[in-house]
Structures
1.
Amino acid sequence: MSDNLSASEVSLLRDAMRAVGTPGFFETYQALFRARVAFSTFLMMRFDPGQPPSLLDNWIEPGRLRPTALNEYLDSTYAFDPFFQYRDRAEGGGVFRLAEVAPDRFFSSEYYLQYYRGSGLCDEVGLLAPLAQGGVAHLSMSRRDAQGPFRRAELRYLRKYAPILIELLTQHCSLLVPPQQAGTVTTRPPLTDLIRNHAKDVLHLALTAREAQIAGLVLQGHSNGSAAKTLEIATETCKVHRRNLYRKLNISSQRDLFGLFKHLL
């Protein structure tokens, strides 16, 4: 199939352009993607500084996703979402596949195995579009196991027309009232604070700020090297902190760590 837009796709693009900033935009924007890409979820949200994600609109294939998955994500598990973690690094925006933004050990992390795969999803593509005041618009499309990963032709199409798709997303989300201005945001403490406070109040253990940071990064799917790079410290220093963390918690693996703190998700 040609990568060039057909007459019907040009019509869909026109409809999406006309609908920017209106309640009809989400449906027409989704139709523009659906002309070339298959997906089981289509979610539009905002990532704003210091706030959990805010869901702007969504479509989920009926009966294909664990019923509580979306609420769990918006309440807490977003902290483990590679796209959420990557939001400030996507300068200028872009189209990204999950594997391109995920930490190096994400696909062996307990979060991925228990929550992501537990939802029946196998692949994800996201658009990230910077907004004013530091916010980022995010469009997420996921595939379930029966559909398999996104195909090369689909990714090629998305990347070819990324400037248009991202501009539409930016324009639309920029016209909506940010949730913090609408007074609808509930602030949740950073994952590092949740880990450190739980260790102190429940486990009666004193974790240093660095140990709590490393615990959060390990849970998100970072190796020692990746965590060290994120924190801008030496890998050997990171290893020492991780050994001290595991010794204090009397554990020996990432799975054990997840078991101690998974209720924080």
Note: The longest strand covers residues 121-130.
2.
Amino acid sequence: MARCRFIDAEKASEGNPAGHSVAFLCRVLGVPRSTYYAHRASRPARTARERAEEVLVGEIRVLHAGSRGAYGVPRIHAALRRAGRVVNSKKIERLMRKHRIVGITRRRRRGLTRQAKRAVFALDLIGRDFTAPRPGMRLVGDMTELSTLEGKLYLATCIDLATREVVGWAMAEHHRAELPVAALRMAAGRGGLEQGCVMHTDRGSEYTSDEFRSEIRKLHMRQSMGRVGSCYDNAAAESWFAILKAEIGTTVWETREAARADVFRYVEVEYNRSRLRRHPDYGYVTPLETRSLLRQNLVPAA
């Protein structure tokens, strides 16, 4: 209460012998003396609360910095709970607003999709249903370009729809068909893909190529495609690149090698193993934790 603080500052004391009596100040300011003395009595608890909030703000800043500034209130709240910190989300929201700690808002990106002149298209086996009951059943893939001072670098990914884990990825100075093929081979090499696993992409020329379709058949997978120019038909794959570019915090790297190293660290260390995502059944968990939890649920009881 501002008037109570004013009385504290202006009352007579050893440090302020010229001050006024508490009774006089309360009468002039219209503050009951009982209110003032209650304010004084609550000072230790108030000081302790303020110090506790300072500690909490420090923890929030550490988590926020650890996410490259990406985490907003929901994931900061989830990360604190995982660390054993029981705190109300509204309190976190208030403190983050007060200290101007904000998460990253993703922007829509421009895609690389170019339809081949003599393309062979596959049916859409996903139908904008970007879910899967178990790992290795449905993958989505896409490509994006990254800017460096040495020139463009291209990234292709394969994402498991059950876990949202990046199970396959590859980078090159070109975006020919061999790039998404390399990402697909990594996904298959990690194991766990079902027979007939769906690989869904857009209709870019790299994905309609003979090389990519041949690899799909070799791996006993099924190819699926959205419509050309429709970002919603491959939204899960495209949104991952928006997350990457928002959270990695770099728009132009000095070298291609620096970009490769940064993307590797983000995918394999930060995203797959550390980034929290809300799962409808398990709450906030990482992609690797989601895979483990789903596999446990799929194991028959002894």
Note: The longest strand covers residues 138-148.
3.
Amino acid sequence: MNNPPRATTVATETATAGPIDAFRDTHGLFTMVAVDQRGSLRHMLSTGRQHSATDDQLTDFKAAVIDAVSGTASGVLLDRDFGLSAAQRSQCPVILAADVLSASQPGGPVDVALLDDDVTAETVHRFGAAALKFLLPWHPDRRHEAVDLAHEFMAHCKDLGLPGVLEGVVRPREGSSASPEGFAEALVTAAADLAETEPDLYKTEVVYTSHDDHDLATATSRAITDTLSCPWVVLSSGVSAAHFPAAAAAAAQGGASGFLAGRAVWSEATTAEDPVGYLRAHAAPNLQAITDRVRAAS
């Protein structure tokens, strides 16, 4: 499955520019930051501390992330629950999460998603959102359910007149998908299934735990590129912050149009004595380091 050079792919996407292209940077790439975490962020901010993080602390943390990166990021992803203050101060376009997420097993990974009925036209206006996002857990034994839910999300986006960012994640990682090669195959199959719902931007995971996975990550990305008719980006969850710049670059070599990264940009701030000070000093450089690697690989 040979792809055209990345420059050709970018040119093709630009020639058919649509609303989602408002989230590209000046190089034509998506260099975006995700801060839509809810329960997982509360857990991160509470770890090692005497008391659980409050709602106000989540709200303030998200706003601090946006203050630190919105001059560098091409877009930001926020949630309805704790992201309004951050959205109102963002200097770049906002994607609003339209998912209600939970885990079927206490303490387990997110593997259940529902469409958030409270993401209405009024909510979109209040956040100034220019796109919606839906995280969709994909399981090989429930493929039709995932496609139906993706269709529901994209129909909701159409009703609101907004582009849809569909995030396909393989859940759970078990059985044949537990190995890197099996995980890669599942990612490609999920992308092929969800492509029929015609998202405006697709977001997915990248196979990368060390430099040894570079070739597999690039080959997987080529296969995902071949199966999609829209641009796509990688997320940083599941990849260490140290490895993510290389992982995103490997994906870009295979045709990914950038990234929508969260933890790789700001996770270390959650355990810092002064989270806001850490974000001011490190979040934008972390983001720029990822962006530089992706630009060099594209």
Note: The first strand starts at residue 30 and ends at 34.
4.
Amino acid sequence: MFRRLLAAFRTRTTAAPTPDIDDAITAYDEHGRQVVMPREEWRDKVLHPQLKQHWDTPDALYGTILTALSDGFAPELMTAAARLVEIDGLPERSHVTHGIVLLESGRHDEAEAVLQAGIRTCGETAALLTNLAKVKHDREDAAGASDLLRRAIRLDPNFEHGLNGWLAVERARGGESGFLEALQEACALPGSWRARLLLARHHLAAGDLPAAREQYTAVLAGEDVDGGALMTMAADLGQYGHTGLIVTLVGPVYEPGRHGPQAAFHLLRACLETERVAEGEALLGRLRAVAQPPFARHLDEFQRAFDHLHRSEVHA
């Protein structure tokens, strides 16, 4: 729910957007045509009317706030974010959104109050604690931020922004050893897989493939492997030159209906690179059974590549 809204920890020097992205907003009209207009014009002619139009519709109002936040309009959104808290049936979402709008506007005391109100309403959640930690972080309270982030990942060890935030804080406090100690602690939490992927990446970078493979095996042994986990695993193995392992480790677990297209693309590329034509074409057949038209066009490209491999084998 918050994946697009929450960002990993960073140091804010100003609440205003940076000048090089400040001059214009790129959007698309109802016919899909690209439209570029000055920020002030977009604010007055697009953003404000949209906020007014969606004032009583929580999902649409949330979506509008989300888009405007990504374009750097946080100070313009404080009233709308407060309105979202009033009408949204998802109080965690609305309090996190309001808190981030206030944080991005440099209003830390108000952000803290909103996030604490969210905790009183919903109880502690990973998203609320992560953003409270951002308040501490921006106040240069590294110990306070670390404590909140540790609590967040104990609630949800795979909450990406909480985990990344905690690791970043621990690296800043204790260097690489502090980062690895925190990473090992996160790996030991029940159900943790995201930290294991980060540890595996660390091992790959160090040239220790057996240690990385041990982490991957633990992730793949889970009852409900996340599609994002498979994508990350495949991408990292490819980056470090272990393309064959993408096929042998990820391939047997991947299910088109559950795990999405991105892991499939990595698998298909790995089959091409290792010339596993039969396995690649078998995967193509499984994917076509569930593919929507845009995805199907990419599958046609892979089929042509496998056909080319067939012809190369015939003429070899």
Note: The first strand starts at residue 24 and ends at 28.
